[in-house]
Specification:
5-stranded antiparallel beta sheet; single chain; about 140 residues; Jelly Rolls; about 0% helix
Length: about 140
């Protein structure tokens, strides 16, 4: 098990007009501070991996579609399936590798909320096939 990666179920409010899907509130245990939020899309058959922050905590929730998120701490890995079919928040601490791919035949849109603004000196990257065979 990858240490300190936390997966939390998220609230969905539905009615005849549609849905409201929660991600993170300032009062949630997972919230530390706001750095930035952005949205990343991934196409079916494509992989966005690997990324690791040295000091930044990352929170993922899927806005549209479904993904397989893989986290890897250098020894252990974990596959986490999140998206429209499983609305969850995944909190990834610093120094844990992460990557994701779309599941199914549609593009997935991932919300990425970090506790620090983007800093290229804080980020390490590796090719999708460089660390473990999981895709």
């Amino acid at each position: 098990m990858v240490s300190d990666v936390i997966v939390r179920a998220l609230k969905v409010i539905s009615d005849d007009r549609g849905e409201v899907k929660h991600m993170l509130k300032a009062t949630d245990d997972a919230f530390t501070k706001f750095g930035e939020i952005y949205f990343s899309s991934v196409l079916p058959g494509k992989i966005k991996a690997w990324h690791k922050n040295k000091t930044t905590t990352v929170n993922y929730a899927v806005v549209s579609g479904n993904i397989k998120l893989v986290v890897y701490d250098g020894e252990n890995s974990r596959e986490i399936f999140i998206g429209e079919d499983n609305h969850q928040l995944v909190t990834i601490p610093p120094n844990v590798w992460r990557g994701f791919t779309a599941v199914g035949d549609q593009k997935a849109i991932v919300a990425d909320l970090t506790d620090a603004p983007y800093n290229p000196d804080d980020l390490e990257r590796a090719d999708a096939d460089a660390l473990i065979d999981c895709w």
